[in-house]
Design brief:
single chain, about 20% strand, Rossmann fold, five-stranded parallel beta sheet, alpha/beta, 16 helices
């Protein structure tokens, strides 16, 4: 696989920056800093990953005012990895209140410290935006579905001369630089085992007691580890879609790692069931990125009855109501449609779609079956999800 991907030229991202101050969150390696340096070449830049900058602003966050005093014409200030010094947010807040016309851009790869120590200070004064891995459509002709399933869509991996090696070290980087360095867990070995165990829940119902048993720790420890994983933006859960429910529905959420390649790095073998989970996760990361980018409120969930009738994804919003089933098959079978047919019966206004590994659209029993690659290449935050 290493020779399939070559270092990429700068890919034009679909992200559009607000004109006011904003937080830009995303896991490490999603290209936040690269995009900002290209978009704001003249910005004042504070990189809190640099030890001298980290020491300076940790000890004296008010030095930010001195920096601005020395650069009176500065219009844009970027504070990279702002979660490293949460106290600097109070200074940013005060400067925004002075209405100097300065735009602050605050990047972060972890929401843990900020949630506890300062994001609320800027509520309503700085928007919250996310930088996801690449959309398939951003890569265009360079996107290959099988490649994306094996290596994911992280820019740091896609742009590497040794993508497989980069992917292998990616999770280790988080363990060392975020989890261990920040003292988030007492036993880094337990957390590493948790990461492997939680990978078995990817694209599946999350049963915390099962994960605890697999990694030999207490349930409360797994709940804490899961929160850390979500705070580090490496994983998330989807809830059951319950609006106007006509049947008894399941209650447990489903869990996903944020990138198909990261999932593969934790589950390195690719038998059929793992390939299916990887495909479902790849679709999910596109849907979640699209939902996060919308100004209007949309919901992303899934639908499952207590009798195990399921639809993988439900996207619900002002002008969109999709039920989406993902199948790792080249030929849709009648049994693949059963969940969508049941969902359509309960919600006749929805549009049901089955995504599969074939090459052409087909209509089966009133349900449109769309090649997964075609669907993914059509997902753009500036366009409707489906027309």
């Amino acid at each position: 696989m290493g020779k399939l991907i070559r270092p990429l030229p700068l890919i034009r991202r679909f992200f559009h920056a607000p004109t006011q101050s904003f937080f830009l969150f995303g896991p490490r390696g999603t290209g936040k800093s690269t995009w900002l340096k290209a978009r704001y070449p003249d910005a004042l830049w504070i990189d809190l990953l640099e030890l001298d900058q980290l020491r300076l602003y940790s000890a004296h966050p008010e030095r930010l005012k001195e920096l601005l005093a020395a650069h009176p014409h500065a219009q844009v200030i970027v504070i990279d990895e702002v979660q490293k010094v949460p106290d600097i947010l109070s200074v940013v807040h005060a400067l925004i209140e002075e209405k100097r016309g300065i735009q602050f851009i605050l990047t972060g790869s972890s929401a843990r410290k900020l949630r506890r120590a300062g994001v609320d200070l800027l509520a309503g004064r700085a928007l919250l935006k996310h930088m996801p891995p690449f959309y398939a459509a951003e890569l265009g002709e360079q996107f290959q579905l099988q490649e994306a399933l094996e290596l994911g869509l992280l820019p740091i991996v896609r742009g590497s001369e040794a993508p497989e090696e980069t992917l292998k070290t990616y999770v280790g980087m988080y363990l060392k630089e975020e989890v261990q360095a920040e003292g988030l867990v007492r036993n880094i070995g337990d957390f590493a085992r948790f990461l492997e165990a939680i990978s078995f829940s990817h694209a599946s119902e999350l049963v915390i007691s099962n994960v605890a048993r697999e990694c030999s720790v207490q349930r409360k420890t797994v709940e804490n580890y899961l929160q850390i994983l979500q705070d580090l933006l490496l994983g998330y859960t989807l809830s059951v879609f319950t609006k106007r429910a006509q049947r008894a529905l399941a209650e447990r959420p489903k869990f996903y790692l944020f990138d198909a390649g990261v999932y593969r790095s934790l589950r390195p073998h690719m038998p059929q069931e793992i390939a299916g989970a990887a495909l479902e996760g790849l679709v999910c990361q596109h849907l979640r990125s699209w939902v996060d980018a919308q100004v209007k409120h949309y919901e992303l969930g899934f639908w499952r009855t207590r009798s195990k009738v399921e639809v993988d994804f439900v996207v619900y919003g002002p002008d969109t109501f999709l039920g989406i089933e993902v199948k790792h098959t080249e030929t849709p079978h009648p049994g693949d449609l059963s969940g969508l047919k049941a969902f359509k019966q309960d919600y006749p206004e929805c549009t049901p779609l089955l995504l599969y590994r074939g090459k052409t659209r087909v209509l089966r029993e009133g349900i449109l079956c769309v090649p997964c690659e075609e669907f993914l290449l059509g997902v753009r935050p500036d366009l409707p999800l489906w027309k």
